[in-house]
């Protein structure tokens, strides 16, 4: 079988609601699977304030509003895609792989939902679109998450641990050919919420957190949730972060700086405990290199706290190129789309807890050329 180069656009709308991440890449697929790849262009396009408000409010809306928003968000994503393609003078594009925006994630009920209808996106961009990357795994009693270990294995070999600091923090660990991965704490969703109290969208470099003092009572209240003691595999929903955890944070009386420092401490403690939990399983939790991605990787104060919590475990933190930090999840979508296109597994039961491996994603074809 001869190798084939695919030109793919990966789309990711994260839980932080900061915009749509787009990663245009070339991936070469051959007899031995993925042979090489390169990121050709990447950009994050912010959502309009009206769309940010609509996405935040959607979980509490009616079925009619949900259905309309699913369709219209597909149209809106198509506008952003066309803008990206024009700005980067992109002409060759084999297909789009879109995660959509997660509205519900309830794996205990074998259910989850992302909006941004693939058929609407395909109709307006005139390109094939692959979407819905979690539902089959959920149907097989999996968590539908995390999916990041697939990118870690294919795109970034050579590390023992992979930490993504997005709206939610998740950890992947490798031992031989075996993988474990799970969400372990809220991250930028809480940090950005607090930064908004200071009139900013995020705490740049962790400057405000570095001025605060950890509030032990607040930390204990956040950690009292049963999730933190739950064994992996496990995953978090936006509703849980924006509900119980955000409520505790909002109601506690302390300065914004103190709350930011406390959330960073929460992430550090939870990362350390996650690695200690991994050590209970043979082959996992050993000393090694940890690769960090996601917007939280730009928070220097947070990274310092994390290194302090794992240093005595023999773990060293590494940062990749800035484009990888920012666009790893959009790259992941491109890879998941390629695996779906090639009819290969793109959800691993050893990570998600599903009954078996699965091939996730529905393909939406554009209108035929007239």
UniProtKB/TrEMBL annotation:
First-level EC class: transferase
PANTHER family noted in UniProt: ANHYDRO-N-ACETYLMURAMIC ACID KINASE
InterPro entries in the cross-refs: Anhydro_N_Ac-Mur_kinase, ATPase_NBD
GO BP annotations, alphabetical order: amino sugar metabolic process; peptidoglycan turnover
Organism listed in the record: Saprospira grandis (strain Lewin)
Keyword line: Kinase, Transferase
Protein EC: 2.7.1.-
GO MF annotation list: ATP binding; kinase activity; phosphotransferase activity, alcohol group as acceptor
Gene3D superfamilies recorded: 3.30.420.40
Pfam families in the cross-refs: AnmK (PF03702)
Entry protein name: Anhydro-N-acetylmuramic acid kinase
